[in-house]
Amino acid sequence: MTVDLKQANEETRAAWNKNAAHWDARMGEGNDFVEVLIWPATQRLLRLRAGERVLDVACGNGLHARRLAALGAEVVAFDFAEEMIAHARQRASEDGERIIYAVLDATDETALLSLGERRFDAAICQMALMDMAEIKPLMRALARLLRPGGRFVFSVTHPCFNNPHMAHVAEEEDREGNIMTTYSVKVFRYISSTLAHGLGIRGQPRPQIYFHRPLQVLLGAAFDAGFVLDGLEEPAFPPDHPVGKNPLSWGANFSEIPPVLVARLRLSTSGIQEE
User: Fold this and answer.
1) Is 191's pLDDT higher than 80?
2) Interatomic CA distance for residues 168 and 191, integer angstroms
3) Does domain 5-159+189-267 have CATH number 3.40.50.150?
4) Selection from 11, 220, 217 nearest residue 131 by Cα
């Protein structure tokens, strides 16, 4: 993928500022992806303890920052889209005093380090790494922001099954007089890192950029920074999950195919980056 990363990053920032109100209205305090797939797996992998200091990377409207604070965490949450942070601040919660919001670019390593080295017990990044023009600066910074043994839990659209180069497929077959429908996904590109425009939520004012990375690139950036992978879940909607208006949307019809990957990276005490 040969692109002007700085230009792509600015285009991404502009898109999220433009889409912020639409996303906040549609996402609010969560949706099926959050409630069924992302948040349960995140809680299991994060194993949060009350009083821990957690960094919420690319926090959007603060949905997960508020949930972390409600569980007793002290949270620093940031996003590079000023409009997203504005919506986060407007969504007050009973535990709001435990949250500090900031406007910060996750691709700016120097700015990230200004948050305080060895300050955090854990970090999360929910469904945002695929929206970042670069992830190596973030991984390098997290290796210095986290305390020894600190963990980083992230969720992304599954690079193998839910990337910009796939399609949902429904095939009908006559089996002994019974018409059966089989639902699947067709993936026609995976191994190359690519950039593609798309809609995260239908009706959003402006398409966003998806930065597709195969697992070897996604995880490789973390390994190079001194992290090890010690937890992984691939949540899929259960077979009894309600099917929406569009049978080709993610839901029960795709119960054997995970649209999301949730992983825990842990900072190796022998691989702490000091440079």
Assistant:
1) yes
2) 19
3) yes
4) 11
